[in-house]
Amino acid sequence: MRRTAPVTGNREPGTNLMRIRLQKLLRDAGFGSRRHSEEFIVARRVKINGRVVEHLGMTVDPDVDKITVDGKPLRRGPEHVRYILFHKPDGVASASGDRFGRRTVFDILPREFLKFFMAGRLDYHTTGLMFFTNDGEFAQMLAHPRFGIEKIYSAKVTGTPDERKLESIARGPVVAGERCQPVGVRIVEHSPKGNLWLELTLREGKKNQIRIMFDQIGHPVQKLKRLSIGPFKLRSLQPGEYRELSARDVARIKERMILESRSMSTR
């Protein structure tokens, strides 16, 4: 059987200027993050026009080049991007399926969203804002630390942590042996039963971080709700409801996020 030669560089550019970085094309087609998409290339699983790709810097013209992954033609990303805000209720898993047979977000949302990217999963008992989109690039932007997307939560904790304990969280708690970024902590009110309502602002989201860090100081979380993800707010959206955003509005937000990220990187 004849062995195909590897692709090690870009072909000569033609008249079509619509060239896209291969990793971005893979990501938008649903192959995960940019880094995960690169793993497909490094593993020699991607071909362009029948030749194995070995160069991570490849750009392609998706209207001209024939791209395959594991021998199967690459399906292009969506022509029409969609952006969905969803208010996750309590007692719902943030997954397409649950090994315990519990209800999931896709038992509430239309099945057409099943293949969308989920930006900002929430644990089973945490309520509040989730973001769904078929725009892989934007989903990655919301999750990537480089963009410093703030997520704001409302939390009711058991009892009243003293100032020293709250300062230990504000400075950046240690979770699973790793120092987290500083956390914005604002006291909202004391409940009649002696518990404390807080507003928490995070720029990263380690799994169960909020619950773990309050368990560690002896004040477990009783209620937890995400109020916002970056510029996107929960506002009047009720549990189980979703709202679709204008692609034009999100495009403007996306452009602003890119500009702000570049500005931060040059400081």
Question: What's the topology here?
Answer:
Layout lengths: L19 E2 H7 L5 H9 L3 E3 L2 E2 L6 E2 L6 E3 L2 E2 L9 E6 L28 E3 L7 E7 L2 H8 L7 E7 L5 H8 L3 E2 L2 E2 L4 E7 L5 E7 L6 H8 L4 E9 L2 E2 L8 E4 L1 H19 L2
Parallel strand pairs: 9-15
Antiparallel strand pairs: 1-4, 2-3, 2-5, 5-6, 7-9, 7-17, 8-9, 10-14, 10-15, 11-12, 13-14, 15-16
Mean pLDDT: 86
Radius of gyration from CA coordinates: 22 Å
Helix content: 10-25%
Domains (count): 2
Return the structural class.
Answer: alpha+beta
Shape: elongated
Low-confidence stretches: 1-16
CATH architecture tag of the largest domain: 2-Layer Sandwich
Largest sheet: 9 strands, mixed
Feature tags:
four-stranded antiparallel sheet; alpha+beta; disordered N terminus; nine-stranded mixed sheet; Pseudouridine synthase; Structural Genomics Hypothetical 15.5 Kd Protein In mrcA-pckA Intergenic Region, Chain A
Explain how this protein is built.
The chain is of the alpha+beta class and 267 residues long. The chain has two domains: 20-73, RNA-binding S4 domain (Structural Genomics Hypothetical 15.5 Kd Protein In mrcA-pckA Intergenic Region, Chain A, Roll), CATH 3.10.290.10; 83-247, Pseudouridine synthase. The chain contains six helices and 17 strands. It has helices at 22-28, 34-42, 136-143, 163-170, 209-216, 247-265, and strands at residues 20-21, 46-48, 51-52, 59-60, 67-69, 72-73, 83-88, 117-119, 127-133, 151-157, 174-175, 178-179, 184-190, 196-202, 221-229, 232-233, 242-245. The strands form four sheets. Strands 7, 8, 9, 10, 13, 14, 15, 16 and 17 form a nine-stranded mixed beta sheet that branches. It has a four-stranded antiparallel beta sheet with strand order 3-2-5-6, with no helix packed on it. A two-stranded antiparallel ribbon has the order 1-4. Strand 8 and strand 9 form a beta hairpin. It is elongated, with a radius of gyration of 22 Å. Mean pLDDT is 86; it is low at 1-16.
